Amino acid sequence: MGGGAGATIRLVFLGPPGAGKGTQARELAREWGVPHVATGDMLREAVAVGTRLGREAQRYMDQGALVPDAVIIDLIAERLSQPDATSGFILDGFPRTIPQAEALEKLLKDLDWPLGRVIFFEVSQAELLRRLTGRRVCRNCQTAFHLTSAPPKRPGVCDRCGGELYQREDDSEATVLTRLKVYREQTAPLLEYYRSRGLLRTVPGEGAIEAIRSAVRRAAGA
Ligand code: AMP
Questions:
Q1: Which mutation among 13, 56, 58, 61 tests ligand 1's pocket best, with the greatest number of atoms within 8 A of CB?
Q2: What is the pTM of this model?
Q3: Ligand 1: residues whose CB is within 6 Å?
Q4: Which run of H or of E encompasses 53?
Q5: Domain for residue 21, yes or no?
Q6: Has 218 been annotated as catalytic?
Q7: Is 139 within a domain?
Q8: Does residue 67 form part of some domain?
Q9: How would residue 6 be classed by pLDDT, with cut points 50, 70 and 90?
Q10: Dist. CA 144 → ligand 1 center (Å)
């Protein structure tokens, strides 16, 4: 990757909510043996456990708004200081604003950990709406299913671990529309930010999951 064969895998998965970043990041992180760092999953866990962070984050998340940059930047700095991050990482759902991207750039510079690439998942707005409103997620392992296009073998039960499937609070149609607007206004500017740094690679986020995964492998140079 970036630094040549055998370089450490340090990637950002970028794209609108529902683009399939989490599905691909979870599998590829397993395949590559690096942590999957998903700020949305970390926040939902904090909400479930009822920590101070969770209580603060929940009101933003329920509305489909972004949690304040300072909160998220602290969370990521803390996560990347864990020993497993030295082997590399896939960041999923972070950064989501220009200040977050700038904070990440500084953090990685201080650690002397150059970012490999930023993989952008391109998906049409109509497809995003369809995916998000039909999405069901495992409470236990976070694996995502879709009511019609990727249903579980048994309704309401996770194929992978047997956990309970649920609809995320923020996957209701009204909140999804807000999240897509927030994406366009606050996150889409990151495309130009990373393009200008020569880091951006685009993959089509529609099609068979396996085909998309191959495209991500190629785009990542892995
Ligand atoms: P996700 O699972 O990535 O769709 O994230 C769910 C929600 O968590 C978002 O709608 C935000 O409220 C919050 N969140 C996750 N990541 C971030 C981030 N990098 N910056 C701000 N808020 C975030």
A1: 61
A2: 0.92
A3: 17, 39-40, 43, 60-61, 64-67, 72, 93-94, 96, 100, 170, 179
A4: helix 52-63
A5: yes
A6: no
A7: no
A8: yes
A9: low
A10: 16
